[in-house]
Amino acid sequence: MPQLNPNPWFFIMLSSWLTFLMIIQPKLLTFIPTNSPSNKATTTTKTSPWPWPWT
């Protein structure tokens, strides 16, 4: 069964992860998010109980 032979697939997996970690990830982390979180005050809403018709 060729699926159990890790020789070619381990190198492919290792090289793809190293490519991601060394090249792609630093480029993605340099982007600035367009919607930065703002410090809004949280307002509490007043909730009223639901008028159940069968009680």
Strand count, sense and barrel status of the largest sheet are: none
Q: State mean pLDDT (0 to 100 scale).
A: 80
Q: Which stretches of 5+ consecutive residues score pLDDT under 50?
A: none
Helix content: 40-55%
How many strand elements?
A: 0
Beta-strand level of the residues, as a percent range? under 5%
Topology as a string of helices (H) and strands (E): H
Class per helix and strand makeup: mainly alpha
- How far is the N terminus from the C terminus? 68 Å
Total helical elements? 1
Q: Give the C-alpha Rg.
A: 27 Å
Dominant shape: elongated
Keywords: ATP synthesis, CF(0), Hydrogen ion transport, Ion transport, Membrane, Mitochondrion, Transmembrane, Transmembrane helix, Transport
GO molecular function, one term: proton transmembrane transporter activity
Family: Belongs to the ATPase protein 8 family.
Subcellular location: Mitochondrion membrane
Features:
ion transport, CF(0), mainly alpha, 55 residues, 1 helix, 44% helix, ATP8_metazoa
What does this structure look like?
With 55 residues, this protein is mainly α. It is 44% helix and 0% strand. The chain has one helix and no strands. The protein has one helix spanning 6-29. The longest helix has 24 residues, at 6-29. The termini are far apart. It is a single-pass membrane protein. Its main location: mitochondrion. It is found in: Mitochondrion membrane.
